[in-house]
Amino acid sequence: MNLSKRAIEVQESPIRKLYPYAVKARDKGVKIYSLNIGQPDIETPEIMLDVFRNLQEKIVAYGPSQGLDIYREALVHYFQHLNIFINENDIIGTTGGSEALVFAMTVTCNQGEEILVFEPFYTNYNGFATMADVRLRPITTYAETGFALPTREVIEKHITRKTRAILICNPGNPTGTVYTRAEMEMLAEVCKKHHLYLISDEVYREFVYEGEKVTSVLELKGCEELAILCDSVSKRYSACGARVGCIVSRNKELMAATLKFAQARLCAPTIDQMAIAACIGLPDSYIADVLAEYDKRRNLVYDALTKVEGLVCVKPRGAFYIIAKLPIENAEDFIIWLLENYRVNNETIIMAPAEGFYATPGLGRNELRIAYILNTEDLTKAMHIFTTGLEEYKKVKL
Amino acid sequence: MNLSKRAIEVQESPIRKLYPYAVKARDKGVKIYSLNIGQPDIETPEIMLDVFRNLQEKIVAYGPSQGLDIYREALVHYFQHLNIFINENDIIGTTGGSEALVFAMTVTCNQGEEILVFEPFYTNYNGFATMADVRLRPITTYAETGFALPTREVIEKHITRKTRAILICNPGNPTGTVYTRAEMEMLAEVCKKHHLYLISDEVYREFVYEGEKVTSVLELKGCEELAILCDSVSKRYSACGARVGCIVSRNKELMAATLKFAQARLCAPTIDQMAIAACIGLPDSYIADVLAEYDKRRNLVYDALTKVEGLVCVKPRGAFYIIAKLPIENAEDFIIWLLENYRVNNETIIMAPAEGFYATPGLGRNELRIAYILNTEDLTKAMHIFTTGLEEYKKVKL
């Protein structure tokens, strides 16, 4: 029995593909620090967990396809607090940010059409693009220049007759970049001129460390028809397993079309939506405290990496990832080697090889992504394993 | 800004499209009995709700992309109880049965390839097919013959070079059919001969009223490579808002490919999976009691319908829907008229027009689907509104 071509070609997640090696090591009693996946160790807010604990519902029933009213109303307030003014009808609740991205690709592009992305990009965009039968056309950015956005001229050179949208992740996973307002306005100008949608994945909106304010795609003037926000509560409230996100746009036709796809899959998880709606009651200090904790982690990881000879990395300004370019040939081999061979006090680490975050073949092979999502004590041990492991690996392999 | 062709063409759910009329009536203080959607009024089992209420987790974390171990182990036991022997690796947990169906279409078909379906079929297959860029090629079945499966010859005549799978819903939504073992074996033979996958949506497995046992696609001999089960816990445990389903196959390559798509969207809702896993502890009497209740409802609705002059319907043997062919031209107009104009004691009903359950243009226009998912008291009132409303409508419109 043949499988479809796309089933054979779809990318295996570089974030999860080395997981079996971790399982093998764990089965031998080795402790693994997981720096491969953006699963924070921050506790989910009590106010959210209480919704589960105090559940009064007798029936876990379908919700509306566009999302529960209380969830969408909570989002309206959340965005209002950010000086972004939308109403409930501009929002469709989705099953995580993942579904929002698949919807955005599906409603904007015909099969085989193209979306521009800046590589390295969130690797799962590849899977979503395969689902939606959309080609991701990469524009390369570089660790050496802080993964800065290319000039307008470079971007425009990549636009073809098939280009339908530009997709950004801001703050950037895996790069840690935060685009300036000027950069966002440049992208908006390009999109307006070439009739492209601007799809903005802003799930790390709260995670900015240098006092910047993220410019949301929804704030751009004159972009009401082309701006599409994809969002998720997973990171903001450390609730990754609650599959709740949203797609937001003021383009009414686009939202009406998206709703039809949303109707086919009936609804996003209802209890999760109720739980997330409660988080609107959190004070600003909640995010401030979380951010302070991540900032410590960021500094710890960055300081450890800068001490490694020949390693290139840029201090991330946002999100909670860092791309490290290693002074070795193949980062994936190094990670597998760590999982199979290298222990410090019977502990080791798993990270994500970065090659899968690039669409251009061959790029990123000597890079890896570290998610700094563990407490500083664990992270200190993990980075010690990383740096001593790399020394050892170079001795063994070079 | 142009939308994609598929965004314009994707079907609006006939189950949910008339909902705005219901909202309008409700806003005027009219009580609506909802017979349009398969949302049972049966309470979700306490054993499941207790998992939410007793939540110990401090972090609502990502689960494995293939589903939580406890959930997949519970499913292994569940199927074992049905004399179906699979192991955890044959299962991927999905976000409802919906995602399982999108996965099944995506891994079996290239873009533009075809899946045979027997119409009328579960209308949301249209949306999934648009998502997956697959053509549903309908083979018509008829109310007059109880929506019986066509002969092998008729089925084989519909197979083209582009056909990759046959998709069935057993027990059938919206038809209430339950395929015999002989019918299932005939389908298996056709699939084997023509190298087609057999995708079986069995979410209503427990809902059979005539003592039959549903023959699962997983029980068919020699079909290990081509059999794909799509399942959901929504109906079985009256937990539609818990978005938890699964795709099951013994075809290892197919499951490996499916896992890659599953990795892209990270995981299904984790707390919902935990809650569902607890339901494995329910005694057989749980389903027996639920079934007895539905059987009462089935008889009530069927008896009411058979009293309507000129109405054609067949007594459903499974699921909880009935297709009624009305002695009027347009069932959708009738439903809208009920919602806008017809009240009994300031109450009215909403049902789903059946045209959208057919892929052949023009078919089903005078049919509607009734979901018998309300208690007998409400259902009695609803069917009274239906029958008297139809009389009145005929007077006004014919």
Q: Give the quaternary arrangement of the chains.
A: homodimer
Number of DSSP-assigned strands of chain A? 12
Q: Please list the strands of the largest sheet of chain A in the order they lie side by side.
A: 2-8-7-6-5-3-4
Alpha plus pi helix count of chain A: 13
Give unreliable regions of chain A as ranges.
Answer: none
Q: Characterize the overall form of chain A.
A: globular
- What structural category arises from helix and sheet content of chain A? alpha/beta
Helix content of chain A: 25-40%
Average pLDDT of chain A works out at: 96
Biggest sheet layout of chain A? 7 strands, mixed
Largest interface: A-B, 84 and 84 residues
Q: What percentage of the residues of chain A does DSSP assign to strands (E)?
A: 5-15%
Distance between the termini of chain A: 44 Å
Order of helices and strands of chain A: HHEHHEHEHEHEHEEEHHHEHEEEH
Structure description:
The structure is a homodimer of 398-residue chains. With 398 residues, chain A is α/β, with parallel strands linked by helices. In chain A, 39% of the residues lie in helices and 15% in strands. Chain A is built from 13 helices and 12 strands. Chain A has helices at 5-9, 19-27, 46-53, 69-81, 96-108, 124-132, 152-157, 181-194, 252-264, 270-278, 284-306, 331-341, 376-397, and strands at residues 31-34, 91-94, 114-119, 135-140, 163-169, 197-201, 227-232, 245-248, 321-325, 347-350, 352-353, 367-371. In chain A, strands 2-8-7-6-5-3-4 form a 7-stranded mixed beta sheet, sandwiched between helices. In chain A, helix 11 runs parallel beside helix 13. The first copy, chain A, is globular. The termini of chain A are far apart.
